[in-house]
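Continuing the batch. This is chain 6 of the set; chains 1 through 5 are on the previous pages. Same settings as before, nothing changed between runs. Recording input and output for traceability.
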Amino acid sequence: MFADDEDFTPVNPNFEWLAENPICFVGFGFGSGLSPKAPGTAGTAVAVLLAALLMWIFHFPEWCLIVFGVLLFPVGVWVCNECEKRLRRHDYGGVVFDEIGAILLILGFVPFNLFYWLAAFALFRFFDAVKPYPVSYFDKNVQGGLGTMLDDYVAAVLCIIPLVAVQYGLKFIQGAS
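Output for chain 6:
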C-alpha cells in the first residue's frame, strides 16, 4: 500500500502532527480538517471565510475565485497525495483541501452576497455528502489525490449549474417586468 514506508500503521493526526507536516497542515485546511464532526463542512467554512476576506479586504472580483479554484486543482492533487502518504490512509476525511478548492470555484460563479454564498455552501455540502452520480463514480473509481480532488470538483460543477441558472432566471424575470 505505502511501499516506501516500513511502518504501515495509519497515523491519527492532531495539531502537533500537523505542525510537523506543513503540507498536511495545508491539506487539513489549516487545521479545520481535525474537526471531530463534519470536517468537510469545517474546511468549506474556512474556505468561505478566506474567500470573503479576499473579496472584502482586497476587492477581488469574482472571477479571481474561479482562477484560484482552477489553480488549486493540480496543487490539491499533489497535496492530497502527500497527505495520503504521510497519514498512511486513502482519502482521509480530515484532508479538506478538495473542499477548499471546489468551494472557491463555485463562489467565483455567483455574486458576492449572502444569499448566493449560503446557497452555494448548502448545495456544495449536499452534493459532497450525498455524492449523486457522477460524483459517486469518481469517488469510487479514481484513487489517490486525483480522486480526492476530482469528486469534489464534479460536485462543484453540479452546484454551479443551478446557481448560474437561478442568476439568469432572476435577471430574465427582472428584465421582463
